[in-house]
């Protein structure tokens, strides 16, 4: 019956004698097995006359698919490619499907899948390469709710980490794991390309109340990873600003009335100001207070440069007019 189902999935229409010859049985046995498939819920239709025969039609539920070795390898490699470079929303589905396939993939095919996956390249917003075994091990640990362990490189040292894995998150550049760090008793995000010796343990855990995985990782990448963070109110719609700023560089939240809040970080507050100035929109400083002073210093430097560059004008900077007070922060 499984072989019969596989044949019906390979071709649109089969005649009874063709199926009997392929299966090495009588046409009567074919008819009996077709009835069994129908009893199990497979919509096998039969047509009479020229061009008639057995065909597998669409049903209310998706039936299990049977793949031969070549189909299984190609599907797994395509899913790895999808998980590595798919558009937002498709990555998670590709990863879930890949973990299902990896669980039942024969051992003889796994090496071929790993070898072929190393030949897949991306361009544009391609993510940093990740070992497929690392990706699949952590995805399986998230699914099965079992602890995971790995060595994690931070700076020049690598340490053993034990975590309760929660979600895998893909940015436009890298893969991250959101997990509860058991040794530090807190939520952390980890870059997969910094992990080695990744293993799923046997200890199961009860899921904790977790933060939104994508938002937590994005905030960490765009802000918490830097020594200086800033919140700004930009006078432009959130969609407009998101199109100007990579997701890994800032968190953009709608604030209504054509404005949005931008959370970003950098090595210095001046660098944050330069980035938001280049967006070309009016903005207000929400936090930190010292960023207001940096706005004033930067404005004075720019005015001095403009005066010095204009022939026949006094190079000393003119005093800047005091900004009108704003309810949400300081106008810049």
Automatic annotation (TrEMBL):
Residues 1-52 form the HTH deoR-type domain. The keyword Transcription regulation applies. InterPro entries: CBASS_pafABC_assoc_protein (IPR051534), DeoR_HTH (IPR001034), HTH_11 (IPR013196), PafC-like (IPR028349), WCX_dom (IPR057727), WH-like_DNA-bd_sf (IPR036388), WH_DNA-bd_sf (IPR036390), WYL_dom (IPR026881). Pfam families: HTH_11, WCX, WYL. The keyword Transcription regulation applies. Keywords: Transcription, Transcription regulation. One of its GO terms (molecular function) is DNA-binding transcription factor activity. Residues 314-326 have a biased composition (Pro residues). Residues 308-332 are annotated as: Disordered. PANTHER family: PROTEIN PAFB, PTHR34580. This is DeoR family transcriptional regulator.
């Amino acid at each position: 019956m499984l072989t019969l189902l596989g044949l019906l999935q390979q071709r649109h229409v089969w005649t009874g004698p063709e199926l009997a010859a392929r299966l090495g049985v009588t046409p009567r046995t074919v008819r009996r097995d077709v009835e069994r498939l129908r009893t199990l819920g497979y919509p096998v239709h039969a047509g009479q006359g020229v061009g008639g025969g057995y065909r597998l039609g669409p049903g209310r539920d998706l039936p299990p698919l049977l793949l031969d070795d070549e189909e299984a390898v190609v599907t797994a490699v395509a899913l790895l490619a999808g998980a590595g470079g798919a558009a937002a929303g498709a990555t998670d589905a590709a990863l879930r499907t890949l973990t299902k396939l990896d669980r039942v993939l024969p051992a003889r095919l796994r090496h071929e899948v790993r070898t072929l996956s190393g030949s897949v390249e991306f361009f544009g917003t391609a993510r940093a390469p990740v070992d497929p075994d690392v990706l699949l091990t952590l995805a399986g640990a998230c699914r099965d709710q079992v602890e995971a362990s790995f060595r994690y490189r931070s700076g020049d040292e690598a340490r053993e980490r034990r975590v309760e894995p929660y979600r895998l998150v893909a940015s436009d550049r890298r893969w991250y794991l959101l997990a509860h760090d058991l040794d530090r008793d807190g939520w952390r995000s980890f870059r997969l390309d910094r992990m080695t010796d990744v293993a799923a343990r046997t200890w199961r855990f009860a899921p904790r109340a977790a933060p939104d995985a994508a938002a937590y990782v994005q905030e960490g990448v765009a802000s918490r990873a830097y020594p200086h963070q800033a919140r700004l109110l930009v006078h432009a719609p959130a969609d407009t600003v998101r199109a100007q700023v990579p997701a890994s560089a800032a968190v953009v939240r709608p604030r209504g009335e054509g404005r949005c809040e931008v959370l970003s970080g950098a090595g210095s507050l001046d660098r944050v100001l330069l980035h938001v100035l280049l967006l070309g929109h009016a903005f207000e400083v929400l936090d930190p207070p010292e960023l207001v002073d940096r706005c004033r210093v930067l404005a004075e430097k720019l005015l001095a440069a403009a005066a010095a560059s204009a022939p026949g004008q006094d190079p000393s900077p003119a005093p800047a007019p005091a900004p009108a007070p704003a309810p949400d922060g300081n106008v810049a």
